[in-house]
Amino acid sequence: MLQIPLLQSMFYSTKTDWKTTAIFGGIIAAAVIGLIIYSRNSSGQTSGRGGRSFSRRQFRREATSIGLSKYQIRLLENFIKTYQVRRPFNLLSNTRELRITLGKALRDINHMEAKESVIEQRKLEIYRIQQRVDRIFADTNRMSSTKQLRLGQNITFQQENGNRFTSVITATLKEFYCAQVPLNFGGESVKWRKNSKIKLFIWGVDGEEMVFESKVIGYTNVKKINSVMLGHTSRISRAIMRKYRRRPIKGQCSFYPVRIVEKGIGRKMTKQAVVMTKQGRVGTMIDVSAGGCALASHKPLPRGELIKLSFEPQRGNIIIAFGKIVDSRMLSRSRTILHIMFTRASSKNLNKINEIVYDFS
Fold first, then answer.
1. What domain range includes position 319?
2. What is the domain-level CATH number for residue 291?
3. What is the pTM of this model?
4. pLDDT tens for each residue of 83-102
5. Final residue of a structural domain among 214, 238, 262
6. Does residue 77 surpass a pLDDT of 50?
7. Contact 290, 353 (CB under 8 A)
8. In b/e form, how buried is each residue of 247-278, taking b as 16+ CB within 10 angstroms?
């Protein structure tokens, strides 16, 4: 019998290798994540307002609108890239992100290989960015009318001779407001004529001093408190010495009168500032800002006097600045507070002051 072999098909069954599958799955997942990260990096690490992609043109336009210079805008754009700021527009308002970013920049700038003058100037520009944002923040949150005064709020009156007296708001009505009649150093009431105008000082954002000028309507008693009635006003101006954020500070200081001496004749005549070192006075610092300071002294100089100021907030850290006495008020019979507006200081000294005022640590 003829035997024909049957054609046999062989089937191979494979057993699943879960270890290999897991490895390949991990590789694929890592590749997907890498593509996502690359996509984000290629389109920019940052996002704009409302989650939209970051527009450099829009950022520059908004930065210019708040008064930042081209150099300051370039600095911010560099910070956005260096520190991978995810919300760049937050750097244009008084936010925590702005403070963190500027703090990093100030920390890293000390390691920059450049001349000391270049480093100090860049530091100064970084501080000026914060100062400009401070101004915008203060303008949007400032008091625009005396109608915003609060009951019990502390205020200061100023006479025409510059003397100031503290007081407190005793009533706020629709037509007028009332403040306690202040007392002079002899314990006598300080009063003004009806319809005369009086300057009123209050403290605003970051200790900024703001000035109102109200008309005296009359006098009354508010809950047995002798009070002056004042008309509301929406006109407001800012005191020069409170243009920048200030910081309380303690310690002694020395200040010297400065005289302007003319030398030469005619077109060759020049003016030179001479510090009267033998006429120095001693005072106590009260507060300081990038624009000026306040100090108390038993031997004050008159308003309008140019001075050289020297103080040492920390041992070995001497700060020198030139300024002008723009205001003064008697604190007691033997003690006067002087408000100084800085007129000249080196970038290094200004940065020392800014380090005191702005705590970026």
1. 247-357
2. 2.40.10.220
3. 0.66
4. 999 999 999 988 889 999 99
5. 238
6. yes
7. yes
8. bebeeebbbbbbeeeeeeeeeeeeeeeeeeee
